[in-house]
């Protein structure tokens, strides 16, 4: 039936699951450990989608040891990319009360690409100067997209503040629109995923972590939404991804076993906490 809300059942399932997730996972573990768990998992997979070869375990080790980590079959540029992602993620969490505007977005991009973009001949935080394309996708007219950024961000800032759109749906819709705007010369994918989580953080919703193993499904959802001028595919993908993550982590919490990786390394001392699955 025309005009029928396609997300009623999925939204209800997500909201019900989120209540359990908040109680069993978010509230049950040390806040700093849980933030660090999210940071490591998110950084590994978001950078991995773009080709970074660091695994979750590699990323955890980099977080613990910094540049003192022993790089085996990894490049220093990849390590810089992960470290910059840590810093950008920390920034959006510390500034979750910020308005969603052009200044904020360019600052996050500057932090995200600080140690990688100069190698490619560009300046972090500056918009692209040529038409953007990736693989077989030519994005929207770059000059027009950049000119429209203040208005685009203002519309989502208003949507965040009026709270009429479900947070996960708002996050997904923004993500698709930002990716197809593609205003920066590099880092748009990682930045788009960070900004989607910035929206979710404002509403205290679980962060969306798209696994690198799901890269093609993710790209297909973006392409389908653009091709059909309909947000159904990307919103469904965001819901499916978040629901699967919550179900997985709730299941781990209920069925802890000797094989479950419990705790973070803190020097030679293992602190009790939640690290999730190794991937």
Q: Return the domain count.
A: 1
Low-confidence parts: 256-279
SSE succession: HHHHHEEHHHHHEE
Based on CA inertia axes, which overall geometry fits? Answer: globular
Strand order of the largest sheet: 1-2
CA radius of gyration: 19 Å
**N- to C-terminal distance:** 42 Å
Which CATH class? Mainly Alpha
CATH topology: Fic-like fold
- CATH architectural label: Orthogonal Bundle
Helix content: 55-70%
Which class best fits the helix and strand makeup? mainly alpha
Mean pLDDT: 89
What amount of the residues lies in strands? under 5%
The biggest beta sheet is recorded as:
2 strands, antiparallel
* CATH level-four homologous superfamily name: Fido-like domain
Number of strands: 4
Task: Tell me about this structure.
- With 279 residues, this protein is mainly α.
- It has a single domain, classed as Fic-like fold, CATH 1.10.3290.
- 59% of the residues lie in helices and 4% in strands.
- It has a two-stranded antiparallel sheet.
- Strand 1 (133-134) and strand 2 (137-138) form a beta hairpin.
- It is globular and about 45 Å long.
- The N and C termini lie far apart (42 Å).
Secondary-structure topology with pairs:
Layout: H1 8-26, H2 31-49, H3 56-65, H4 76-94, H5 102-112, E1 133-134, E2 137-138, H6 142-162, H7 167-181, H8 188-202, H9 215-227, H10 232-254, E3 264-266, E4 269-271
Antiparallel strand pairs: 1-2, 3-4
Organism: Flagellimonas oceani
Site (Important for autoinhibition of adenylyltransferase activity): 50
Active site: 182
């Amino acid at each position: 039936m025309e005009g029928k809300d396609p997300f009623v059942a999925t939204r209800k399932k997500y909201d019900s699951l989120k209540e359990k997730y908040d109680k069993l996972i978010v509230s049950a573990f040390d806040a700093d450990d849980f933030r660090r768990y999210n940071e490591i998992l998110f950084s590994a997979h978001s950078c991995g989608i773009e080709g970074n070869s660091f695994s979750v375990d590699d990323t955890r080790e980099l977080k613990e040891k910094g540049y003192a980590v022993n790089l085996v079959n990894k490049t220093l540029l990849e390590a810089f990319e992960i470290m910059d992602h840590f810093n950008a993620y920390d920034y959006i969490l510390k500034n979750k009360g910020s308005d969603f505007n052009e200044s904020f977005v360019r600052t996050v991009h500057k932090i995200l690409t600080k140690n990688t973009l100069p190698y490619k001949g560009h300046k972090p935080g500056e918009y692209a100067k040529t038409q953007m394309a990736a693989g077989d996708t030519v994005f929207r007219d770059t000059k027009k997209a950049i000119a429209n950024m203040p208005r685009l961000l203002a519309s989502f800032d208003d949507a965040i503040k009026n709270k009429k759109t479900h947070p996960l749906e708002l996050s997904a819709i923004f993500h698709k629109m930002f990716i197809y705007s593609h205003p920066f010369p590099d880092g748009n994918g990682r930045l788009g995923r960070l900004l989607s989580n910035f929206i979710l953080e404002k509403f205290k919703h679980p962060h969306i972590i798209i696994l690198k193993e799901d890269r093609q499904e993710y790209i297909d959802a973006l392409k389908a939404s653009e091709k059909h001028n309909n947000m159904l595919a990307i919103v469904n993908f965001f819901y499916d991804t978040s629901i699967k993550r919550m179900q997985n982590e709730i299941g781990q919490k209920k069925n802890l076993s000797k094989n479950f990786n419990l705790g973070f390394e803190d020097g030679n001392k293992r602190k009790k906490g939640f690290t999730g699955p190794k991937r």
